[in-house]
Amino acid sequence: MTKPTAFDTALDALRRYIVSHGLAPGDALPPVATLAATFGVSQATLREALRAWEAAGILQIRHGVGAFLQRYNWAPMLRNLSISALFEPDQGRQMRDLRHILESGLLARAVERLTNADVDALAALARAMSAGEGGRAAEFRFHALLAQAAGNPPVEELLRLAWLVEQQAEEGAPFDPAERAAVHHEIAQALRGRDAEAAREALERYFAMLARRGAVAA
């Protein structure tokens, strides 16, 4: 087994320190010198570990003040995915597949949780999708509202990230506003009738449409 590096030791010690002390978002970590001495690593190594956690969206470092835990920030992940999409041509399809899997799993919960007002909003967004380019914003809001039915913020964020990266990767691909509006209208109507199977079938047609668009873009 490979011996852990001082950097790995610092990362693991940080994790265990946070758990054992019951720290939460907003709490400050002790000074670098104190933590380095506690963990038995150099201050340079400890700073490297803190910067790694900041880059991952776990910490916020306020220069001259200290390091603070924060609620997970998804921005670094989005930034990394957006950059990798520039040289990974298949990433648009991968993000579409991720959306497909997650949204299919959400439908049953959406049938149970969406209110009549939510379904009215979905129907209005479906109508807005026939408005050319402006319809893409409505499409995003439609699926964001579906994601809210999960009652799980990380799932909502994952779907948002997948959508944004997919759109970047397939920018310029042709699409039919009327077809897009029609399939979303079918999803909304199925949800209004609390028909999970009909909603699933309409969602499958939606992702089949996206796959055809992605194939043209490739």
Unreliable runs, pLDDT <50, ≥5 residues?
none
Estimated structural class: mainly alpha
Largest sheet: 2 strands, antiparallel
Rg, nearest Å: 22 Å
Number of helices in the DSSP assignment: 10
Q: How would you describe the shape?
A: elongated
Provide the spatial order of strands within the biggest beta sheet. 1-2
List the helices and strands and how they pair.
Blueprint (H helix, E strand, L loop, with lengths): L5 H15 L11 H8 L3 H13 L3 E4 L3 E4 L5 H10 L6 H23 L2 H13 L6 H14 L4 H17 L7 H16 L3 H22 L1
Antiparallel strand pairs: 1-2
Helix pairs in contact: 1-3, 2-3, 4-8, 5-7, 5-8, 5-10, 6-7, 6-9, 7-8, 9-10
Can you characterise this structure?
The chain is mainly alpha-helical and 218 residues long. 69% of the residues lie in helices and 4% in strands. The protein has ten helices and two strands. Strands 1-2 form a two-stranded antiparallel ribbon. Strand 1 and strand 2 form a beta hairpin. Helix 7 packs antiparallel against helix 8. It is elongated, with a radius of gyration of 22 Å. The mean pLDDT is 86.
Question: Keywords, please?
Answer:
two-stranded antiparallel sheet, 218 residues, elongated, 10 helices, mainly alpha, single chain
What's a quick, concise take on this entry?
This protein is mainly alpha-helical.
